[in-house]
Amino acid sequence: MGGPDLWFVKHLGKGSFGSVSLYQGLRFDGTVIYVAVKTSDGQHAESLFREVQILSEFKGCPRIVQCYRVKAELNRFNGCVEYKIPLEYAPGGSLSGFINKFKDNKLPDPMIRDFTRMLLEGLATIHAHGYVHCDLKPENILVFPSYVNNNGAWSSSFELKISDFGLSRREVDSSWWSPSRPFAGTSIYMSPDSVSYGETGKDLDLWSLGCCVLEMYTGKGPWWHKNYEVDDLMKGQQPPIPSELPFEAKLFIMTCFAPRTKDATRLLKHIFVRGDEGTQPSHDVSDKIDLQLANNFVRRNVSKTQSIRVPPAAAQVMPNKTIMA
């Protein structure tokens, strides 16, 4: 695959478009390197090439997983061509697995606020390049731990990076949408407008972010209270927000669920991720604001009308050689 020789260590997981395995190698200076290699067959090669083309635009972006290159290789066991992308390896695994390590699968409030800020930074970068991730969920968010020794006492911190751009699209590209498959990514993280009208915009990713914040607080996926149906979204429903969440968290999630009122850069100024002190409203005021936000959300969703846009088919050209990202 070029560069240092790599040796297989273990399988990390399998998804819709291929598998991911951990490889180990030695740099030229003798240091050990670990990479996560995503492998797909020819059937999913188009998605793999699109992903590496997108990731190549995010070189050096601290909130997005880094991609090294993609290359075709012949599988010696079945004789089929496979496509491989070496990616930055996350020792902490996915956010989904990270959540499961905590009591009741719930992360502490300060950590959730910090993680949400990191995800907003990543989405702000993605949207600034004209893309929509389309499949933001804990399984596609990677955790990078770091450890510092201060006078014999070890402390840890964690950084998040967004991964898996195989379903990403240019903003306003709704060529993927059809009544038989009305969602771009994972259905329970999709927004009403993306499901009903095929809208691919910033609001889709921010709706998904609201679902992720809910999951970090509750330890459960969105729509945990019922058997999820796509029709729920088409009726303008949203996942329930537990009343015991901090006021700023409820306000932030409802803002994520509100249509056409925000973008990631603006949400970075939200009180929930700024950590402002001395601005906590009383419970009476909080309840009134919550009720007003809920009423506004229902009124906007029930009263608005939509028209379905039918975009022209977009031709996709798949490279036939190695791409260096």
Automatic annotation (TrEMBL):
Keywords: ATP-binding, Kinase, Nucleotide-binding, Serine/threonine-protein kinase, Transferase. One of its GO terms (biological process) is signal transduction. PROSITE patterns: PROTEIN_KINASE_ATP, PROTEIN_KINASE_DOM, PROTEIN_KINASE_ST. It comes from the Eukaryota. ATP binds at residue 38. InterPro entries: Kinase-like_dom_sf, Plant_MAPKKK, Prot_kinase_dom, Protein_kinase_ATP_BS, Ser/Thr_kinase_AS. SMART domains: S_TKc. Gene3D superfamilies: Transferase(Phosphotransferase) domain 1. PANTHER family: CCR4-NOT TRANSCRIPTIONAL COMPLEX SUBUNIT CAF120-RELATED (PTHR48011), PROTEIN KINASE DOMAIN-CONTAINING PROTEIN (PTHR48011:SF66). Belongs to the protein kinase superfamily. This is Mitogen-activated protein kinase kinase kinase 20-like. The gene is LOC108845433.
